[in-house]
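Quick one before lunch.
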Amino acid sequence: MFDTMTFTKILGGFCGAFLIFLLGNWAGESLYHTGGGEGGHGEAHADAYPIETGDDHGGEPVEEVDFATLLAAADIGKGERVFNKCRSCHSIEDGVNGTGPSLFGVVERDVASAAGFGFSGALDGIEGNWTPEALSAFLQSPKGFAPGTAMSFNGLPKETDRANIIAWLATLN
Ligand code: HEC
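Model of the heme C complex:
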């Protein structure tokens, strides 16, 4: 009898605890699902992704406005220093190509038109001119802008660096 009592108490306690645990679990899950699961989280992700990819695609129109402002305020002297990262491959003398094509007059020049340079198909396939915006996109991520490009350069992540060097390159035209 004593044993049965103890056993019943233990069992009762265990069942009670288990029930509370189950209830807590269920409450927690339903809170999570209604609060975060369907609506909240879904929307949070939907919001998060366009912001991340916005840099590469959707963000461009916004960037153009900003970029024009940056370009107008660009520091040409600093731009010349940024060019130190390009020197090993690029000359700024007209018609002098190295590993990369001459960058003399590259701003507003036709893409992949430097005389005597064998461009990769990646750049050959891009229509139009090297507008400051196109240059900025290319320099931010050469491989992102022109997948397969022969320019093995990681890119200039800082927008001010890009504005400065493009402003400086434009003085060479
Ligand atoms: C490791 C060598 C290397 C470095 C460093 C490098 N480039 Fe290039 N660049 C190339 C090559 C190679 C090409 C030709 C790419 C192709 O044909 O796909 C190129 C192409 C270009 C073009 C396209 C030119 C045209 O006539 O269409 C521009 C603009 C350019 N580079 C700018 C820069 C700038 C600015 C820097 C420095 C911030 C830089 N590059 C750093 C090798 C380099």
